[in-house]
Structures are given as C-alpha cells and as structure tokens.
Specification:
Elements (H helix, E strand, L loop, with lengths): L1 H11 L5 E5 L4 H8 L6 E5 L29 E4 L2 E4 L7 E5 L9 H7 L14 H13 L3 E3 L8 H11 E6 L3 H8 L4 E3 L11 H5 L5 E3 L11 H12 L18 H10 L2 H13 L9
Helix pairs in contact: 1-6
C-alpha cells in the first residue's frame, strides 16, 4: 500500500510520462483512480504480471521518494463522490496499531528480540504504548478509530481519514503515507532500534505535517493539551521535527545519496541510478 503510493508520487514528479506494467487489480490502479492522477502515469494492466517489471518494483523505490514531495491532492474520488481534502477540526483520530494485527504484549517482543527483531515487528509497539495513546487521544476530546486492518478497503480508509480524522498516530507504515497525501498530520512511533547516523523514519516521511516520536516513553509525559497543540501546529506545517528538514544541509541530498549508495546492495544501487537519470536536480523532499 505505502510502497506504491510513494512510488506514484515519485513517478508523478519526474515531469514526463511513466509507463507502468502491472497487475489488473494493483494498488497503482487504485491510487490513480482515487487521486485522479492524469495521463502522465500510464497503466498497462497485465494479468499475472507479478512483481511490477516496469518501472522498478516500488519496494526498491521507497527510499528514493526523498527526491520528490508528496503529492498534495485537493480532491479525492471514492464511492462515486469527489471530496475536498485538508479539512481541519475533525472529531476523530486514527490510531495505527500493528498493521491491523492484534496488539502484542511485552513478552512477545522479549521473545523475538534475540531473533534480530524481524520486519515488520521492528515497527510495532507494546500494548502499554497503545493504551497510553488511546488515553491521550480520548482525553484530548477525539474519538479513536482503528482502521489499519487489511480487511478495510482503500476507499473506506480514504473516506474515513479524509472525512472524520483530524490526525493519525501510531506505527510507521502505509497509512502514514496516505495521511501525507490527504494533508492530515501524522505522529509516528519510532522503529524499535538504536538510531544510527540517520533515522529510518525521517527520510521515508519528508512531510511538514509530521512529528516523529523518538522514544515511546516520551508519550508518558504528554498531556491532552500538548497533543492538541501539536496537532494544530502540524496542520500549520510547524512543529515538525524531521532530521533532514531541520538540518543546516537541507535540501542538499548529496550526503544522503552517498550514504545510501555505500550501504546498499547492487539492486538498490541500480534503482537509485534509475531515479537519478530522470531527476536532473534532486533535492530532498522536492523543497
């Protein structure tokens, strides 16, 4: 879900038609319809085409979304209706919990810690963290909604986020990318790893309506008023704390490019070269 959405934003930023060979019912077709994306993105539906042979598979493009902004759509089309995006003051908040899976307790994470904390569990958090989030959201006067289940269609997710939710809060993933496209603030939990020189979450979410929680324990000190003020600031594109967007070197991407090239395998390096050949003046986040 998130991979294809950020890939669409990247393709849409290249200033030339991009021809996508994909499966008939792919996420690409879903996003093109919902976000009314024009002829610059051309789809060739092929039954059983598998792993998106043309252009590169989105899972190898997500890191290179850094070279373009998120498309900010003024309207979306779902259920035959054209809906305005960016409305503020909605009364619900979307809580993103473990990719729609059941909430894990402390013992679950203790058991997998010695197994290199496999993906996607490295992004998820404990029941205690989500209890804290739930209490904060309700204390701030919002009705909590949990809508990241894979059984909820893309149209339903877009409708619920756009029409009812003032912000999203929870694990890093596709729903956060969707929030960016809908102009909705996102408050993102960290990956449960010791950060290196760069935070993984930051270069995947170059968006000025986004705040990154650096440690889940930080939530213990938050109050309802703090949450309300943070959401208001993010709606105004202030209060964001992205490592790249507050850096003195932003928006020069050369440091990131070299870091990523050194740490990537041959396939990822090929994907980076594919992007750079169409991006003559890359800047981080397109800013």
């Amino acid at each position: 879900m998130g991979d294809t959405l950020i890939a669409m934003c990247l393709f849409n930023s290249l200033g030339q038609p991009v021809h996508i060979t994909t499966s008939i019912d792919s996420w690409y077709a879903t996003w093109k319809r919902i976000f009314n994306i024009g002829d610059q993105i051309q789809l060739e539906p092929v039954a059983g085409s598998g792993m998106w042979p043309n252009p590169p598979h989105p899972k190898h493009l997500e890191s290179f979304k850094v070279f373009s902004r998120y498309d900010q759509f003024d309207h979306v089309t779902v259920f035959g209706q054209s809906l305005h995006t960016g409305r503020r003051g909605k009364k619900s908040a979307a809580i993103l919990i473990n990719d729609g899976n059941y909430v894990k307790d402390d013992q679950f994470f203790a058991n997998i810690q010695d197994k290199t904390d496999p993906y996607p569990f490295i992004k998820f958090h404990t029941k205690k963290t989500y209890d804290t989030i739930l209490n904060l959201v309700q204390s701030a006067g919002y009705d909590p909604m949990i809508i990241d289940s894979r059984d909820i269609s893309a149209d339903h997710k877009v409708f619920l986020l756009n029409e009812l939710c003032d912000f999203v809060i929870g694990y890093e993933g596709g729903m956060c990318h969707l929030a960016h496209a809908l102009k909705i603030p996102a408050i993102i939990l960290p990956w449960r790893v010791e950060p290196g020189e760069y935070h993984v979450t930051d270069f995947l979410h170059l968006d000025k309506r986004t705040y990154f929680i650096r440690n889940a324990k930080e939530l213990d000190s938050w109050t309802a008023d703090y949450l309300v003020d943070l959401v208001n600031n993010l709606h105004n594109e202030t209060g964001y704390n992205n490592q790249w967007m507050i850096s003195n070197t932003f928006p020069d991407p050369s440091e990131f490019v070299e870091h990523f090239r050194r740490g990537s395998d041959k396939k990822f390096a090929m994907q980076l070269d594919w992007v750079l050949q169409y991006t003559t003046q890359p800047t981080l986040g397109g800013y």
